[in-house]
Amino acid sequence: MKFPMNTLARPLAALALLLAVAAIFVPGFLHLEIKDGHLYGSLVDILHRAAPLMLAALGMTLVIATRGIDVSVGAVVAIAGTVACVLVGSHGLAVAFAAALGAALLCGLWNGLLVSALGLQPIIATLILMVAGRGLAQLLTDGQILTVYEPASFFWLGGGHLLGLPVSLFVVAAVAGLTAQLMKRTALGLFIQTVGINPVAARLAGVRTAAIVFFVYVYCSLGASLAGLIIASNIKSADANNAGLLLELDAILAVTLGGGQLSGGKFSLAGSLIGALIIQTLTSTIYALGVPPQVTMVVKAVVVFAVCISQSSFWSSRRTA
Amino acid sequence: MKTFRAAVAAPSFTAWVSVVLMVLLFIVGASSYTGFGSTQVVLNLLIDNAFLLVIAVGMSFVILSGGIDLSMGSVLALTTMVAAWLLQVAHWPAGLVIVTVLLGGAAFGALQGVVVHVFRLQPFIVTLAGMFLARGLCFLISEDSITIDAPLFVTLSQTQIPLFGGAFVSPGAVIALAVLGAGLWVAHCTAFGRTVYALGGSEASALMMGLAVGRTKIAVYALSGFCASLAGVLFAFYMLSGYGQHAQGVELDAIAAVVIGGTVLTGGYGYVAGALSGVLVLGLIQTLIAFDGTLSSWWTKIVIGALLFVFCAVQRLLSLKKVSA
Question: Would you say domain B15-29+38-324 falls under CATH 1.10.3470?
Answer without folding.
Answer: yes
